[in-house]
């Protein structure tokens, strides 16, 4: 990842924390993607939420998505921790959630 100098750990102006979705806990309810549409999307192969843009929505919408998540899988983390969590998550084995094939068909 290329550095711009605006990262929080480098004293930049971006938000000092990041949004992280624990995909192993996510049940694919899609609520977060409806609340903060520019930040979250539902990953099509497994039907779970993912962050697509850390700066996509204002913090109050991100907090609402977190507060209303039925399984508490969305968290604030510091940017340094985010990379470690996302790297560890790539090693997890996930099964699709929801109705069989629903995520792949776009339902």
Radius of gyration: 14 Å
Q: What percent of the residues sit in helical stretches (DSSP H or I)?
A: 25-40%
Briefly note the CATH topology name.
Answer: Alpha-Beta Plaits
Number of helices: 4
Domain module count: 1
Main sheet specs: 2 strands, antiparallel
The CATH class is identified as Alpha Beta
Give the rounded overall mean pLDDT: 81
Task: Tell me the series of helices and strands, N- to C-terminal.
Answer: EHEEHEHH
GO molecular function, one term: electron transfer activity
InterPro entries: 3Fe4S_ferredoxin (IPR001080), 4Fe4S_Fe-S-bd (IPR017896)
Keywords: Electron transport, Iron, Iron-sulfur, Metal-binding, Transport
Protein name: Ferredoxin
């Amino acid at each position: 990842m290329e550095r711009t100098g605006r990262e929080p750990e480098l004293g930049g102006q971006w938000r000092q924390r990041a949004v992280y979705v624990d995909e192993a806990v996510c049940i694919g309810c899609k609520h977060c993607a409806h609340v903060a549409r520019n930040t979250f999307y539902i990953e099509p192969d497994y039907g779970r939420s993912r962050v697509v843009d850390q700066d996509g929505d204002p913090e109050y919408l991100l907090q609402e998505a977190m507060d209303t998540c039925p399984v508490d899988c969305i968290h604030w983390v510091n940017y340094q921790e985010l990379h470690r969590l996302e790297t560890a998550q790539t090693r997890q084995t996930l099964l699709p959630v929801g109705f069989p094939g629903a995520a792949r068909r776009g339902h």
